[in-house]
Specification:
- The complex is a heterodimer.
- By secondary structure, chain A is of the alpha/beta class.
- Chain A is built from twelve helices and 16 strands.
- Chain A is 30% helix and 20% strand.
- In chain A, the strands form two sheets. In chain A, strands 1, 2, 3, 4, 5, 14, 15 and 16 form an eight-stranded mixed beta sheet that branches. Chain A has an eight-stranded mixed beta sheet with strand order 6-7-8-9-10-11-12-13.
- In chain A, helix 8 links the parallel strand 12 and strand 13.
- In chain A, helix 4 packs across helix 5.
- Chain A is globular and about 65 Å long.
- Chain B has two domains: 111 residues, Urease, subunit C, domain 1 (Roll); 218 residues, Metal-dependent hydrolases (TIM Barrel, Alpha-Beta Barrel), CATH 3.20.20.
- Chain B has an eight-stranded mixed beta sheet with strand order 5-6-7-8-9-10-11-12.
- In chain B, strand 9, helix 8 and strand 10 form a beta-alpha-beta unit.
- In chain B, helix 10 packs across helix 11.
- Chain B is globular and about 70 Å long.
- The chains are: A alpha/beta, B alpha/beta.
- Chains A and B meet through helix 2, helix 8, helix 9 and helix 12 of A and helix 5, helix 11 and helix 14 of B.
Chain lengths: 440, 423
């Protein structure tokens, strides 16, 4: 779809990344064990890793003795860098896309980088049973929106079950005077119905196109931007990320998907996933959950911090996500909670924020572990990343340095001075006698 | 039957005595105030710490608990929670945090604490043994209580029922109140916001003035004096026996709060003071302690350093300001130790982080003679851990509150075991 020059541009950008050797770190590969060693970055990719790598001539050398290197963190549920999130006026909002409202200047991108996040799944909100289209981005701060997109990542769509999509159906939770915009559904029964109705229409639409393409029908169907993404879901071309809480609604969605012959790629939040882990694993859905949120609403009252561990042990592909610009800053210690609650190993805990979300987003051939050939998306910590005392020191994406704590600290004084100068100028220019009027 | 009851009644006090008298040995004792003892023991008698040391000579027959080489710390204290007051935030019927009206100094959180709340054992399982429960509504929200996180009734949980009066200092804000209203409203013009702010400050001063007059009339036994429940609750504040916990987060609010305290001659503790670093020298000079909110929050302004909330505790320490940590939550009270650890990652000395969840809050809340460290004469409110209590992966193995072994089971562990075993 994208013009060819874009791919060429990207290749050029990647090759502009310097050859870098990260020397003598403890390398946490996540998939191939951990050990002391060095990682060589060439053309934006991991070229080699091993105990005794020599730096090629002209390479940038990062001395990392005593430090820990891990794959860049992948957040499978985020709403940063999006100008708007919820098109809540309709129950099926599959015609809208987060891609159209990406905001590359969101400060949350920098803060996410400072927390070691290199990739995130930017989701539509949860106001609709079938929500908007979603995209996977890399935290390439400073690049325009189109260049944040993760090349080759399959597009997604948000579904939502339970309290959020049915909220607009309840007169008590809408503003007085808004009664006129009461929106179906008001119950979990209605949520199922909305999804089944939509996919029934999508199948008809799909059949119309098939008839046209095979020549059985001479008239092209009228394009339907709402149903098109649902046909992509039916054909496995678009990944479903479904917001859900309770076991009943989780099972409902899996069964509706079974009925229509498509897969739920990830269940998001899925706080009662531990109650139906067997069924989730059998369907093949991944689960992306909070580490320890609970009791903020009734559908989260049976949430337990052991959720990830139980689902993992029962064969579900699990990730820990943030759904928050703040929690995104310390997903490493969020993952550590699965060691406390359920006894996962260090490698299993790290997988929850790296290779597992990569697999869920089907980008694990590119990112998610430290292996030769993968993109050089890496985070360097001063302590083991599963310790609460660890701080991110450097973050690389495609071999480019996107966050450097030392540089951040060094630039603070200058930034503060520049801000002060601007404020002072503003004060001088302000006329103290100017009448204070309301902005119109 | 009657005889049996009599026997039981006679036996009970003895049993109770035996339950909270024991020797805990083979533990690394972290006293917090008097250093560490690598392989030490603590003798607990009638719920209080009777002796601490490397070797203790004890009367025969004392029950011995083997600490198995683990670590002993004082029970942790969360200096701001809604534990027991709020079960599920989004369900009004389960929340008792905010009363109607702006001036309710007479309200007491203690009497609204549900001792059977599922949140309490969940917090306890991570080492939190005592907590401040904070009312939230209006300007003078009511009286915060310091409670043990164990007890059959709120009476048994009571440590200090009027630990502080909560003053939610007025805020000058031009911003719309929520993310959603931001899409439809541009907010309030500055001049209007300032006028509203001044009106609120004046109302606050008026209320204190009213309380002062009430006190004068009462002391003078003035004719026609009528008791008033609201104003009566202000007397300990005016007399300085109950401190005022002032929630003020931005620089201007903190500055105005300090000025207000000075003018009203009240003893204050500052809470959730996000901009406290900018006023640290003044806080130090005036000896005002600070309750720091979660370090896990976003910087307020886009151009704030990304780690501003993480470094605030270290800055307070450098300036010599006394502080304690609070979760200001119910569901996240269990993460109190981790926010303390996060402050260590960003420059706070480890010992100070430990103090900020033990002895500092005990001092700030006026109970350091009973809580906050492992010292003779204090309550045996203790935790046994398999490592550093501020690290996530550490497990809390035992907890004692006033010498009683506390159940560390909770709803989450029960559901875990139940569903892990599902065939």
């Amino acid at each position: 779809m994208r013009p060819r020059w874009f791919a060429i541009f990207c290749a050029a950008a990647a090759s502009a990344a310097p050859v870098t050797l990260i020397r003598d770190a403890t390398v946490l590969t996540v998939t191939k064990g951990a050990g002391k060693g060095s990682v060589l970055i060439q053309d934006g990719r991991i070229a080699a890793l091993g105990p005794n790598l020599a730096a090629p001539a002209g390479a940038v050398v990062v001395e990392a003795a005593g430090m820990y290197l891990m794959p860049g963190i992948i957040d499978c549920h985020s709403h940063i860098a999006a100008d708007s999130i919820n098109e809540s006026s309709v129950s099926v909002s599959s015609m809208v896309s987060v891609e159209d409202v990406l905001d590359p200047e969101d400060i949350a991108i920098y803060r996410a980088l400072a927390g070691g996040v290199t990739t995130a799944n930017i989701l539509h909100g949860s106001a609709n049973a079938i929500g908007g289209k979603c995209v996977v981005i890399k935290m390439r701060r400073g690049k325009p929106a189109a260049e944040l997109l993760f090349e080759g990542a399959r597009p997604g769509i948000k579904f939502a079950l339970g309290e959020n999509p049915k909220r607009r159906g309840s007169p008590s939770s809408t503003n007085p005077g808004d009664a006129a915009v009461l929106r179906y559904p008001a119950t979990r029964m209605g949520v199922e119905d909305v999804i089944r109705q939509a996919f029934t229409e999508a199948r008809i639409y799909q059949a119309q196109w098939q008839a046209y393409r095979s020549g059985r029908s001479a008239v092209a169907p009228r394009r339907d931007l709402k149903l098109e993404p649902l046909v992509e879901v039916l054909e496995g071309k678009r990944l479903v990320h479904a917001h859900c809480y309770r076991q009943d609604e989780i099972l409902m969605l899996l069964r509706v998907a079974d009925e229509f012959g498509f897969k739920i790629r990830t269940l998001q939040h899925v706080l009662e996933g531990y109650k139906v882990a067997r069924e989730i694993a059998a369907h093949g859905a991944g689960a992306s959950t909070f580490s320890d949120w609970w009791a903020y609403k009734i559908e989260a009252y049976d949430a337990i911090p052991y959720n990830a561990a139980i689902m993992h042990r029962k064969g579900v592909l699990v990730s820990i996500n943030s759904d928050s610009a703040e929690v995104m800053r310390h997903l490493n210690t969020e993952a550590a909670k699965t060691m406390k609650y359920g006894g996962l190993s260090e490698e299993e805990a790290l997988a929850l924020i790296t290779v597992n979300p990569a697999r869920q987003l089907m980008i694990d051939d590119q990112v998610g572990s430290i292996e030769p050939g993968k993109a050089a998306d890496l985070v360097l910590y001063d302590r083991h990343p599963l310790s609460n005392y660890a701080k991110v020191q450097k973050v690389f994406i495609d071999g480019q340095l996107y966050f450097d704590r030392q540089k951040d600290l060094e630039q603070r004084a200058a930034r503060q001075a520049r801000k002060q100068a601007l404020l002072d100028r503003e004060k001088q220019q302000a006329r103290p006698s100017a009448p204070q009027t309301r902005p119109r | 039957m009657k005889r049996l009851c009599g026997l039981l009644a006679a036996a009970l006090p003895v049993l109770a005595g035996a339950g909270d008298t024991f020797l805990l040995r083979n533990v690394a004792v972290h006293t917090v105030t008097k250093g560490d003892i690598a392989n030490g023991a603590v003798y607990v008698r009638d719920g209080k710490i009777a002796a601490v040391g490397a070797r203790l000579n004890l009367p025969k027959g004392v029950r011995v608990i083997d600490g198995a080489g683990q670590h002993l710390w004082p029970g942790l204290i969360d200096s701001g929670t809604s534990l027991g007051l709020n079960e599920i935030r989004s369900i009004r019927e389960s929340a008792d945090l905010s009363e109607i009206g702006d001036y309710n100094p007479q309200l007491r959180t203690l009497v609204a604490i549900n001792p059977a709340s599922d949140h309490i054992p969940v917090a306890r399982a991570n080492g939190i043994a005592a907590a401040i429960t904070l009312p939230e509504g209006g300007v003078l929200a009511g009286q915060a209580a310091l409670v043990h996180l164990d007890g059959w009734t709120w009476e048994e949980m009571d440590i200090a029922r009027a630990a502080a009066l909560h003053l939610r200092f007025p805020v000058l804000s031009t911003r719309p109140s929520s993310r959603f209203s931001r899409e439809t409203s541009r907010g309030t013009p500055y001049t209007d916001a300032r006028r509203e702010y001044r009106r609120k400050l004046q109302a606050l001063e008026d209320f204190f003035e009213q309380a002062r007059r009430y006190r004068k009339a009462k002391v003078a036994n003035a004719p026609g004096f009528k008791p008033d429940v609201r104003l009566e609750a202000m007397l300990p504040v005016l007399e300085g026996t109950v401190p005022v916990l002032v929630t003020a987060s931005r620089e201007r609010a903190i500055r105005d709060a300090l000025e207000f305290a000075e003018k009203e001659k009240i003893r204050i503790i500052l809470a959730a003071a996000e901009d406290a670093a900018r006023l640290a020298p003044e806080l130090k000079a005036k000896n005002i302690p600070v309750i720091l909110g979660p370090t896990f929050r976003l910087p307020r302004e886009e151009d704030d350093p990304y780690d501003a909330p993480f470094t605030l505790p270290a800055e307070m320490h450098k300036a010599g300001v006394k502080f304690a940590f609070a979760s200001f939550s119910n569901q996240f009270a269990r993460n109190l130790p981790y926010q303390a650890a996060n402050a260590v990652a960003f420059g706070l000395p480890y010992e100070e982080a430990i103090k900020a969840v033990t002895i500092n809050p005990a001092e700030i809340w006026g109970v350091a003679d009973r809580l906050g460290s492992i010292e003779e004469g204090k309550w045996a409110t203790l935790i046994v851990t398999d490592g550093d209590p501020l690290e996530t992966r550490t497990q809390i193995k035992r907890m004692f509150i006033k010498g009683r072994a506390v159940d560390l089971d909770n709803k989450h562990k029960r559901l875990y075991e139940k569903y892990l075993a599902r065939p």
